[in-house]
């Protein structure tokens, strides 16, 4: 199982970024996928989830209306479109899949700063 995130970077407050997570090593279309984030000194927290078919999504309250999770089961990729970014969104963002255990990507850093 491999999860590879990309798309992080430095963005100004109010800006947008799209994160991608390319998955391999399991039947991608059969599993829900998740995005988590972790800021320095804080525990890792769930940001958004998407069902295997993409038909159901869930968001943490702190990103509702600003972030959108989506997936492409042909490309075996899950996305996180982030808009109206705030300084408090600064974190390392991780892709996650729950198989017989949790699998994580290496993370991609997002810094929101002017």
Characterization of this structure:
This protein is mainly beta. It has no helices and eleven strands. The strands form two sheets. Strands 2, 4, 5, 6, 9, 10 and 11 form a seven-stranded mixed beta sheet that branches. 30% of the residues are buried.
Concise summary:
The chain is mainly β and 114 residues long.
Coarse morphology: globular
Would you identify the regions where 5 or more consecutive residues have pLDDT less than 50? none
Largest sheet: 7 strands, mixed
Question: From the alpha-carbon coordinates, what is the Rg to the nearest angstrom?
Answer: 13 Å
Helix content range: under 10%
Which whole number gives the mean pLDDT?
97
Q: How many DSSP H or I helices?
A: 0
Span between termini: 37 Å
Please count the beta strands (DSSP E, at least 2 residues each).
11
N-to-C series of helices and strands = EEEEEEEEEEE
Structural class designation = mainly beta
Approximately how much beta-strand content do the residues carry? over 45%
Structural descriptors:
seven-stranded mixed β-sheet, 114 residues, four-stranded antiparallel β-sheet, 0% helix, globular, single chain, mainly beta
Q: Layout of SSEs?
A:
Blueprint: E1 2-6, E2 9-11, E3 17-24, E4 33-38, E5 45-50, E6 57-59, E7 67-72, E8 77-82, E9 91-98, E10 102-104, E11 108-112
């Amino acid at each position: 199982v491999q999860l590879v995130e990309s798309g992080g970077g430095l963005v100004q407050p109010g800006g947008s970024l799209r994160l991608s997570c390319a998955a391999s090593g399991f039947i991608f279309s059969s599993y829900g996928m998740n995005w988590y984030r972790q800021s320095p000194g804080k525990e890792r927290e769930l940001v958004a989830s998407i069902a295997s078919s993409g038909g159901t999504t869930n968001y943490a309250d702190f990103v509702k209306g600003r972030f959108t999770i989506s997936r492409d089961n042909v490309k075996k990729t899950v996305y996180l479109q982030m808009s109206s970014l705030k300084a408090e969104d600064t974190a390392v963002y991780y892709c996650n899949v729950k198989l017989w255990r949790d699998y994580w990507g290496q993370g991609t850093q997002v810094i929101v700063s002017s």
